[in-house]
Amino acid sequence: MFRLPFSFIFTGIAGFVVFHLLSLANFAGWVGDMPRTPDGWFRVHLLVLGWAAMTAMGAVYQLISVVLQSKIYSERLGFIQYAFFLIGLLGLLYGFRSGQVYWIAGFATIAFAGIALFVWNLLCTLLRASQWNPVTVGVLLSLVYFTSAGLFGMAMGLNFAFGGLNGWHERLFAAHIWLGTVGWFGTLIISFSFKLLPMFYLAHGHPTRLQHAVLWLWNAGAVVETAAYLCGAPLIWKGIGFLLVTVAAVLFSAHILQIRKRRHKKTPGAGIRWATIGAGWLALLGVAVCIVCFLFPRTVFQPKTVVLLIWGYLWGWVALTILGYLSKIAPFLWWTHKYGPRVGKQKVPAMADLMNERWANVHLALIAASLVMLMAGIGFDQAAVIRIGGSALSLFSLAYTVLIARVFTR
Amino acid sequence: MEPIKKEQVLEWLTTVYDPELGVNIVDLGLIYDIQIRDGHVEITMTMTTPGCPMHHAIVGGVERTLHSIDGIRSVRVEVVWDPPWSPDKMSEEAKERLGYFA
Fold first, then answer.
1. For the CA atoms of A229, A90, A62, A180, what is the dihedral angle to 10 degrees?
2. Cα gap A268→B95, rounded to integer Å
3. Euclidean distance between CA atoms A250 and A318, whole angstroms
4. Beta carbons of A266 and B98 less than 8 Å apart
5. Mind telling me how many Å the CA of B34 is from chain A's nearest CA?
6. pTM (2 decimals)?
7. Cα gap A54→A85, rounded to integer Å
8. Residues B26-80: pLDDT tens digits?
9. Three-state SS at B76
10. Facing B50 at nearest CB: one of A69, A335, A340
11. Helix (H) / strand (E) containing A53
12. In chain B, which residue's Cα lies nearest the Cα of A261?
């Protein structure tokens, strides 16, 4: 299977490029603005749905056979789902850009149909394989979150156009963010990492007990936090949800150390190393926020802190992990398509020959440094630092994208 | 024509590499058994992990490599998970290539 995951990953790369070109054109000025504006929604959805979710779905189609040792339920349904999601996303982005609420409502519904078809396809695949372990249970839970996040997003879109849920809009908004970021992306990354990291490190005999703890604590945190926002529960419940997610993040980092300890390959590659650094960063960020929350409870709910947290989480962990994993997924996708059938007939390159590891490392380091600069700018209200950090982030992200795209020319 | 020997088959299989690890499948210790009868070759092998993404490429590589040898009439590859592969099955060359340390 090549065309289906490639379609998603190629579209995701295109979305990533457009996002950064628009950011550069604006000299990253939009970063300093509050995100709850039509322009902010446009940019966030372009990045989160147009790149991250698109790439994540492509990676799931590519890697589900690795996790389950069985094929996807329906490749054809995958293409139909791709069309729904892409059309819905493009219309939704236009709706945000032009501020047309009926476009937002209509195309959010089409995008949700795309999500629902993806979830259906994966549910059928999981149920048919019927192998339950922390990896597959994690994938199953991430699908539940993806559906819920999409459903709440669609509900907000419909509310923009037709009203009727005004009293619920703020609650739906907070739940939509938690379900999408911590629920869908977080659970999917964690569960896939349980399978992929030992493969990339060639680790054998590492303990797996922590996987259960990480999975359940993370999901307990996601559910408690979402329920707290939906029910308008007291602050303490939101704190408990955040604490559970943080403990899970710390244990996830500890599990990565267990895997590293039992590795039989010196290095898993630059991209994977940066993905693990991202996991460490997530744990540190969570602990830091818990300490600040304990000492200065009101600070955490200030808009600036929330923006900082979202950047730290989405870029520092989710995006860094996706970018890092792409350094393996893209060569794997291309190698199996182009060179797999030639093995045994002629000399073929190794996967490592398709991508310059040293440059990948340099680019990812520069992306991480730009993010730190951007977050410092937001933290200290320095507009110039935000603009320089944001522009550098876009510039180095584009350079890294070129590195990934070049794999498909080898 | 001389009958084909196991040692020859092993030598030919050193040209098939795990593309992710950059090490040939013989040095990785993936080949468990080779049976040869009247030019019909049966390979019993494993992968470093169940669900290895390179499964089809490696098995296909084994089949194509051996099919191209004069005197081999058919090739059958069976992938087994028992006993599971472990790092101690690797040759010293493979360990060195991977920067292995126990």
1. -10
2. 15
3. 16
4. yes
5. 18
6. 0.92
7. 9
8. 999 999 999 999 889 999 999 998 878 888 889 999 999 998 888 888 999 999 9
9. strand
10. A69
11. none
12. B102
Here the ipTM equals 0.86
Does the beta-carbon distance from A332 to B52 stay under 8 Å? no
- Spacing of C-alpha A291 from chain mean position: 26
Residue of A66, A70, A264 for testing the chain B interface, max B β-carbons within 10 Å: A264
Amino acid present at A100: Q
| pLDDT tens-digit readout, B1-12 | 677 888 889 999
Measured between alpha carbons, how far is A160 from A72 in angstroms, rounded to an integer? 36
pLDDT in tens, A332-378: 989 989 998 888 888 888 888 899 999 999 999 999 999 999 999 99
User: A130 pLDDT band (50/70/90 cuts)?
Assistant: confident
Of B16, B64, B98, the CB nearest to A264: B98
Identify the sign of the CA torsion B79, B83, B84, B90.
Answer: negative
Ranking A31-45, A100-114, A213-227 by mean pLDDT, the lowest is A31-45
What are the CB-based long-range contacts (under 8 Å, 24+) for A365-368? A365/A274, A366/A392, A366/A396, A366/A399, A367/A320, A367/A323, A367/A393, A367/A396, A367/A397, A367/A400, A368/A274, A368/A277, A368/A316, A368/A320
